[in-house]
Amino acid sequence: xxxxxxxxxxxxxxxxxxxxxxxxxxxxxxxxxxxxxxxxxxxxxxxxxxxxxxxxxxxxxxxxxxxxxxxxxxxxxxxxxxxxxxxxxxxxxxxxxxxxxxxxxxxxxxxxxxxxxxxxxxxxxxxxxxxxxxxxxxxxxxxxxxxxxxxxxxxxxxxxxxxxxxxxxxxxxxxxxxxxxxxxxxxxxxxxxxxxxxxxxxxxxxxxxxxxxxxxxxxxxxxxxxxxxxxxxxxxxxxxxxxxxxxxxxxxxxxxxxxxxxxxxxxxxxxxxxxxxxxxxxxxxxxxxxxxxxxxxxxxxxxxxxxxxxxxxxxxxxxxxxxxxxxxxxxxxxxxxxxxxxxxxxxxxxxxxxxxxxxxxxxxxxxxxxxxxxxxxxxxxxxxxxxxxxxxxxxxxxxxxxxxxxxxxxxxxxxxxxxxxxxxxxxxxxxxxxxxxxxxxxxx
Length: 444
Hints:
Layout: H1 2-25, E1 28-30, H2 32-42, H3 44-65, E2 70-85, E3 92-111, H4 115-182, H5 187-221, E4 230-232, H6 249-259, H7 261-281, E5 287-299, H8 306-312, E6 315-323, H9 331-397, H10 403-438
Parallel strand pairs: 1-4
Antiparallel strand pairs: 2-3, 3-5, 5-6
Helix pairs in contact: 2-4, 3-4, 4-5, 4-7, 4-10, 6-9, 7-9, 9-10
């Protein structure tokens, strides 16, 4: 029976265990948009900015509520004891009295130099500024993910190229070994090829290391725990990626001014700072407050009943009060002066943000033109070097040139191939950064 029970447990739980293992070993492929979306969901700065926006929303609701009347109710029950003397008999007694009071009061600010209205406007500006700050953080993370993603793609291509070169050199070494045994080439020529093979093994190892490091960097930027099953969807890249653009910095800057969240944020910050001065100046003006209330009570010293006393003691009241500031020890004046300074700082911050944006765009436009030129030059160099290498390879296989001349051509091909790959991804990144400032979606 015990053996049968064990077999039954295995039958029941084994499929689940195997399924869990398959799930753990399953490789998930990530697109660029998938990486960006995941990073934006997990990033701490983004989540903190969302909480900040929620707090700004509450502050705005609180500012609106300050314009509403306040209402409060009060109930008081008291017991008083005293030692009284009967003058006819001279006797004393200790007795208590029961007292109850009720009241409802309300007050509303009728005038305070537009302070409450300006506080509502300021809360709205702060809310909008916070929302645009969140977008700025998201855009910054998007660019970081784009750069890291392209690094993974480029390093993966480096690995493929290094492995392809290693396979070709392995075949050439086998050919050289056969020729050495036949006495066609010298041992020196054979050792040259063997040395090249060792060099390319090291190159492949370095490429694989860089590829692994770039994947770890991307996963960390995404706030994704590092795992061996992480793979990306490699975009299709061909030789026609050059769009021959000639972006004008002034036109791109004009577009960016209208869409970039950091610009919108500093504009709202400046408006908020301008309201600070008006809010501070409200301290120079009187505050007019209207109030109303109603109260009643019961006392145990009176002969009438409880509800009768409550009706007879009902006392409504209405009033208007004016608080006039006379001397405030320069507090209001100092607040106004500080508000002016903060507004000037906000103006400078806006100018600095726009200047920084203009400089970045100017650099991007230059980078695009430069990257296009570098790519075309690298492509031309690679094409000619590849043709030269193919001729050298054919002559080497036919024994018409020695290994030194052949390896020289192969080294040139490897260098040209690496330069082409570097210029290719540099061009792609430059295009995507230009799209970023133009407000175009970041996709591959």
